[in-house]
């Protein structure tokens, strides 16, 4: 079975308001990808130079729907 992957990033300014986590945007994004056959496999935050989180990256996978578009790794 072959997989394809997608990374979606969200700026933390959009999902953390007034110091609290705002779930509706994240839930909408997750449901949208789920309806397209994507499965969330990981998420992680990226830090800026000052140590503050800048973005959260969501990694999705789904079964490949066609031939691989990238050559295999050696």
Overview features:
about 70 residues; alpha+beta; three-stranded antiparallel β-sheet; 2 helices; 5 strands; about 45% strand
How would you characterize the overall build of this protein?
The model has no long low-confidence stretch (mean pLDDT 83). The strands form two sheets. This protein has a three-stranded antiparallel sheet with strand order 1-5-4. A two-stranded antiparallel sheet has the order 2-3. It contains two helices and five strands; from the N terminus they run E-H-E-E-H-E-E. Helices cover 23% and strands 45% of the residues. Strand 2 and strand 3 form a beta hairpin. It is of the alpha+beta class. It has one domain.
Order of helices and strands: EHEEHEE
- Poorly predicted spans: none
Rg from C-alpha positions?
A: 15 Å
Distance between the termini: 19 Å
The overall pLDDT, averaged over residues, is 83
Work out the number of β strands. Answer: 5
How big a fraction of the residues is strand? 35-45%
Q: Main sheet, how many strands, which sense, barrel?
A: 3 strands, antiparallel
Label the structural class.
alpha+beta
Tally of DSSP helical segments: 2
**Cα shape:** flat
Number of domains: 1
Task: Give the strand order, joined by hyphens, for the main sheet.
Answer: 1-5-4
Helix content: 10-25%
Q: What's the short version?
A:
The chain is of the alpha+beta class and 74 residues long. 23% of the residues lie in helices and 45% in strands.
């Amino acid at each position: 079975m072959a997989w394809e992957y997608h990374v979606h990033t969200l700026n933390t300014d959009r999902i953390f308001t007034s110091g609290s986590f705002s779930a509706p945007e994240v839930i909408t994004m997750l449901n949208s990808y789920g309806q397209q056959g994507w499965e969330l496999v990981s998420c992680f935050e990226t830090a800026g130079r000052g140590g503050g989180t800048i973005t959260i990256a969501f990694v999705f996978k789904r079964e490949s729907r066609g031939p691989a578009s990238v050559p295999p790794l050696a």
